[in-house]
């Protein structure tokens, strides 16, 4: 498991108000298609929450390509 | 000074201490003759007309419907508007002269007409010279002050947005027209992108579809101003983005007719992030020929939006909802949205607007990359 996955799960749970059971099912292959409510507006809110929790800043032009947990994890790990 | 006399409420019925001022029969600042009917009042038993007892210009100081006391002044008659207003300004209590408060002439006239102390207006939180708008705010909405209380000032940002829309409304003859759009094809595109880890939403597809269709509808890329039509040179489309605290911004995606949906999605996401961070550049908010407002709040069936100043049309997109449609003899559930085009009827008519919507819906219903 990627070391940033628990933090990503917490961010998704916070923004999308997921149950603990749904949150536990989130893995690197999870995409917005698998999680109700992960739409384009929520995506920006998720990015802002990730920036706050991990103390990083994403480039505005890259966030559309971060629409999977694996892509988010890779981007975070590249910054830490 | 030439003679200025108050117009007072006469005793109509011996049993009444007050009457209801129903309406003025003449306009503000109208020149009246002695014996002219100037307003209507109602007592507990009947209605009556109030007549001017002398000729001159009538300056009204009461806004109907309002209950007024018998003998109370509801206006002033003088030889001219200027003389009456000078009289009213001079009639401001002597306290005004002793006070350090400064006020514009219009503010003094308005305060005098309503019997309002400028000291009280100043104590209401006005700093510097008291203006007519300060007095108006202190007096409150005509006829409604008995029912309401102040709930704070309009935030500066919201006031600026409202000023833009008010300025736009002055130049528009606004009409609107709706069309439903089936989203089966669009949802397939979105799901394909999401499954591949690329964020694409309905808004991004609508922006892309508008980029394909708008060039065929140049009047929707134009606006009328002072009798002249101005047409935008490129298909720059704005979308409405809302911050967490409710402020609305309209960042612009340039030349959407030359971008594929993924580049539009990328640009929209980047601009939305800038809006939410508070880092959107002023240059990215200017120059759109057209705006799209998607309100995805469940249950919203129709979004009638107002075009910004310098645009003649805006597209409102409702929330997605299921629809049962007859397909090949059987009922099929499909996701649909209602798209509402608000447009300037001075530039295009209903057929033009409806044709645009039909073409736009057609693009989305038969989406081809």
How would you sum up this structure, described in words?
The complex is a heterodimer of chains A (about 80) and B (about 375). By secondary structure, chain A is an all-alpha fold. Chain A has a single domain (about 5-80), classed as Non-ribosomal Peptide Synthetase Peptidyl Carrier Protein, Chain A (Orthogonal Bundle). Chain A contains four helices and no strands. Chain A has helices at about 5-15, 20-25, 40-55, 70-80. Chain B is an alpha+beta fold and about 375 residues long. In chain B, about 30% of the residues lie in helices and about 25% in strands. Chain B has ten helices and 19 strands. In chain B, strands 9, 12, 15, 16, 17, 18 and 19 form a seven-stranded mixed sheet that branches. In chain B, strand 13 and strand 14 form a beta hairpin. In chain B, helix 1 (about 80-90) crosses helix 3, helix 3 runs parallel beside helix 5 (about 130-140) and helix 8 (about 200-215) crosses helix 10 (about 350-365). The interface of A and B includes residues 44, 61 and 65 of A.
How are the SSEs ordered, and which strands pair?
The complex is a heterodimer of chains A (80) and B (369).
Chain A: H1 5-16, H2 20-24, H3 40-54, H4 69-79
Helix pairs in contact in A: 1-3
Chain B: E1 5-8, E2 18-24, E3 31-32, E4 37-42, E5 47-51, E6 56-60, E7 66-69, E8 73-78, H1 81-90, H2 94-98, H3 105-113, H4 118-123, H5 132-139, H6 156-169, E9 174-182, H7 184-195, H8 202-213, E10 222-225, E11 228-231, E12 237-239, E13 241-242, E14 248-249, E15 252-253, H9 261-277, E16 290-294, E17 313-317, E18 321-327, E19 330-344, H10 350-365
Parallel strand pairs in B: 12-16, 16-17
Antiparallel strand pairs in B: 1-8, 2-4, 2-7, 3-6, 4-5, 6-8, 9-19, 10-11, 12-15, 13-14, 17-19, 18-19
Helix pairs in contact in B: 1-3, 3-5, 8-9, 8-10
């Amino acid at each position: 498991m990627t070391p940033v996955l628990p933090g990503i799960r917490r961010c998704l749970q916070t923004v999308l108000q997921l149950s603990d059971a749904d949150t536990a099912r989130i893995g690197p292959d999870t995409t917005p298609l698998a999680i109700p409510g992960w739409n384009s507006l929520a995506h920006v809110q998720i990015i802002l929450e990730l920036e706050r929790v991990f103390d990083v800043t994403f480039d505005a032009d890259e966030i559309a390509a971060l629409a999977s947990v694996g892509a988010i994890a890779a981007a975070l790990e590249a910054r830490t | 000074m030439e003679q200025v006399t108050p117009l007072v409420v006469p005793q109509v019925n011996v049993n009444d201490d007050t009457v209801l001022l129903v309406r003025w029969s003449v306009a503000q600042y109208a020149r009246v003759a002695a014996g002219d009917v100037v307003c209507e009042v109602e007592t507990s038993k009947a209605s009556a007309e109030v007549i001017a007892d002398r000729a001159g210009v009538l300056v009204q100081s009461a806004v109907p419907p309002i209950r007024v006391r018998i003998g109370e002044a509801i206006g002033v008659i003088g030889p001219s508007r200027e003389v009456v207003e000078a009289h009213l300004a001079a009639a401001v209590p002597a306290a005004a002269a002793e006070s350090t408060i400064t006020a514009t002439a219009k503010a003094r006239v308005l305060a005098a007409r309503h019997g309002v102390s400028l000291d009280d207006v100043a104590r209401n939180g006005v700093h510097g010279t008291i203006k007519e708008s300060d007095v108006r705010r202190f007096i409150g909405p005509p006829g409604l002050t008995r029912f309401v209380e102040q709930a704070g000032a309009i935030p500066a940002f919201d006031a600026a947005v409202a000023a833009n829309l008010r300025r736009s409304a002055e130049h528009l003859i606004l009409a609107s027209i709706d069309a439903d759009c089936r989203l089966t094809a669009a949802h397939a595109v979105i799901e394909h992108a999401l499954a591949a880890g690329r964020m694409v939403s309905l808004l991004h597809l609508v922006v892309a579809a508008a980029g394909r269709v708008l060039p065929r509808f140049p009047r929707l890329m134009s606006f009328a101003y002072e009798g002249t039509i101005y047409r935008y040179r490129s298909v720059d489309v704005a979308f409405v983005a809302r911050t967490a605290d409710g402020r609305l911004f309209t960042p612009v995606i340039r030349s959407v007719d030359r971008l594929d949906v993924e580049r539009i999605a990328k640009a929209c996401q980047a601009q939305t992030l800038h809006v939410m961070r508070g880092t959107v550049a002023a240059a990215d908010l200017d120059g759109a020929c057209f705006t799209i407002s998607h309100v995805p709040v469940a249950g919203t069936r129709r979004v009638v939006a107002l075009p910004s100043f310098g645009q003649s049309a805006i597209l409102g997109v409702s929330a997605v909802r299921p629809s049962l449609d007859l397909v090949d003899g059987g009922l099929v559930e499909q996701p649909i949205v209602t798209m509402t085009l608000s447009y300037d009827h001075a530039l295009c008519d209903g057929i033009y607007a409806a044709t645009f919507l039909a073409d736009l819906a057609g693009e989305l219903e038969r989406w081809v990359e």
